[in-house]
Amino acid sequence: MGSPSEKREDIKWAVRKRLELIEMELFWSGRVNRQTLMAKTGISKAQASADLGQYKKLAGDNLLYNLTEKTYQVSPKFSPLFISTSPQVFLTQLAFDGESAEQILLPAREIQPTLLRAIAQAVQIISFVDISYQSMSHPEPKNRKIAPHSFVSDGWRWHVRAYDFLTSTFRDFLLARILHAQESDAPASEDGQLWAKEKDSQWSTMVPLKIVPHPGLSTQQKAVVASDFGMINGEVLFPVRQASLFYALKRLRFLDEAENPAEQQIVLANKEDILQLLDESNNQGGGIE
Question: How many CB atoms lie under 10 A from the CB of residue 138?
Fold first, then answer.
C-alpha cells in the first residue's frame, strides 16, 4: 500500500463516505462491485467505476479483482484505511440503516431540544447555564448555575457532567429532569476556575474493573464466559471513569448480583477496592443529582 495520508486530506466528504462504503463492503461482505455502490448510493455506473478506481489507488493492497465474477474481493493483506473494524460499530450501523440487524430500544426519557441546545452550546464554548432542576431528593425544582463540560450515557439515560455552583462539586444532571435552561453570566467569583473540566478529578481518573468468570461456574462454563468477554488468563480489565463508576457497576449487575452463577456469569475480582472508590466518590459529593 502506498502513502495516501496526504491525499486523504483532500477528499471531499461525499466521496469519502462512498470510499468508506467500499471498504466496509470489502471487509464485512468480502466483496464489492459497481452494482453494490449504485444500489446503496444511487450513483451512476460511471461514478461507481470512478470511486472504485480511486479506492484502488489509495489502498490497492486491500482488494483483488475476480475476473470470473466481475467483482472486487477482499485481499489477505487488507488493512483499513477509512473504517473501524469494530463489530459493535458494524452492528450498530446495520441497525441504523434498517438492514439485517435491530437494536431493542428501551423507553426513552423526554429531553427538550431547546434545553439540550442551550447546554450543548455551553459545553462547546465553555460557559455557564442557569437551570431549573427537578431531582428525586427534593419535592420542588431548584434553580442552580452549572458549568457543563461533557455528556455521558449509562446505556439508557443521558446526563450532563457539570460543576454545580450550589454544592461546589461536579455532579451528573439527568437531562430529562432539567425543566428550564438558559445561558448565564460568569459567576461573581471564579474561585480559581474550580469549575474547569481539568479540575474534575473523578472525570479524568480511570478505574480498572477486573472482570472474571463467576467462581460458581463449571470449568467449561468459565471457558465460554472468558471467550465471550475476550479474557486473557481468565480476566479482562475494563476501564471506566470514576465519575461513571456507579453506572457501570449497576449495568453489569455488580451492585445487585444474582444468586445463580449461570445468570450472573461475571464478577469483580477487585470488588473491595472498587466499592471503596465508589464510597469515596459519594463522600466527595459527586454522582447523579
Answer: 10
The verdict on domain 113-199 having CATH code 2.30.30 is yes
Question: For residue range 206-237, what is the model confidence (pLDDT) as tens digits?
Answer: 999 999 999 999 999 999 999 999 999 999 99
Task: List the domain boundaries for the chain.
Answer: 5-97, 113-199, 203-283
Comparing CA positions, the residue from 277, 249, 283, 285 lying closest to residue 171 is 285
Backbone torsions φ then ψ of 106, nearest 5 degrees: -80, 160
Hey, how many other C-beta atoms are within 10 angstroms of the C-beta on 104? 5
* Closest C-alpha among 250, 240, 118 to residue 173: 118
Greatest alpha-carbon span in the chain: 75
6: left (phi over 0), alpha (psi -120 to 50) or beta: alpha
Task: Write out pLDDT tens, residues 164-177.
Answer: 999 999 999 999 99
Whose cell is 447555564? That residue is 129
pTM of the predicted protein model: 0.80
